[in-house]
Automatic annotation (TrEMBL):
Pfam families: ABC_tran. The keyword Transmembrane helix does not apply. It comes from the Bacteria. This is Urea transport system ATP-binding protein. NCBIfam families: urea_trans_UrtE (TIGR03410). The keyword ATP-binding applies. InterPro entries: AAA+_ATPase, ABC_transporter-like_ATP-bd, ABC_transptr_urea_ATP-bd_UrtE, BCAA_Transport_ATP-bd_LivF, P-loop_NTPase. Residues 2-231 form the ABC transporter domain.
Length: 231
């Protein structure tokens, strides 16, 4: 499992995370909810090594990851789907997927068939440039690219942002399939409450850089949870 224990994170003098502790278990979807600017993306940057923590520890499968760069965390099995997708717009769909080969040994450098089973549109667009795809198609490509790395945990930063409802349903089915068929851990940051309610096993809510609520998905319907999510 992934364990974030009492983590602080600063951007200069500004503190973005304050004593944050989160656990993401294998075979479960863990959702982190919260309004804009409460520290959700900062939490994922800490987990993936995009930004160093000021205090606390981040460990995966019992090994402390503090100080490891992002590429080393990818080799440990952490797959990252960043906010805004960040695909390579001038590379083809196939080349974008193949960029996920970086942390893999030579024998594993191929695109798994299950990516095209989950997102058939990618197979029909292998020769098209990533920048020519729609937002929803780019999101599917970003998830596919992360899957190429053979992750043990998939970390997704607001995968429904700016995506049409039909694609949101496809992404939800893909995330549920990955949990149920592979047993991987899923750490999902979201603002879309219904998407999280449908998928999550465990839920955390953040406010002002802190965890203010945690529990099973059913607790999202409590008055306390709604209070922290209401704008």
């Amino acid at each position: 499992m992934l364990t974030v224990n009492n983590v602080n994170l600063h951007y200069g003098a500004a503190q973005a995370l304050r004593g944050v502790s989160v656990t993401a278990e294998m075979g479960k979807i863990t959702c982190v909810l919260g309004r804009n600017g409460v520290g959700k993306s900062s939490l994922l940057r800490a987990v993936t090594g995009q930004h160093p923590v000021s205090a606390g520890t981040i460990s995966f499968e019992g090994e402390v990851l503090n100080g490891l760069p992002p590429y080393a965390r990818a080799k440990h099995g952490i797959g990252y789907v960043p906010q805004g997708r960040e695909i390579f717009p001038l590379l083809t769909v196939q080349e974008n997927l193949e960029s996920g080969y970086a942390p893999l040994g030579r024998k594993d450098r191929f695109i798994p068939d299950e990516i095209f089973s989950l997102f058939p549109v990618l197979k029909s667009m292998l020769g098209r440039r990533g920048g020519d795809l729609s937002g929803g198609q780019q999101q599917q490509l970003a998830i596919g690219r992360a899957m190429v790395t053979r992750p043990k945990i998939l970390v997704l930063d607001e995968p429904t942002e700016g995506i049409q409802p039909s694609i949101i349903k496809d992404i939800g089915r893909a995330i549920r399939y990955l949990r149920d068929s592979t047993g991987m851990a899923i750490l999902l940051v979201e603002q879309y409450l219904d998407f999280c309610r449908e998928l999550a096993d465990q839920v955390y809510i953040m406010d002002r850089g802190e965890i203010v609520h945690e529990g099973p998905a059913e607790t999202l319907d409590t008055a306390e949870a709604r209070r922290h999510l209401t704008v």
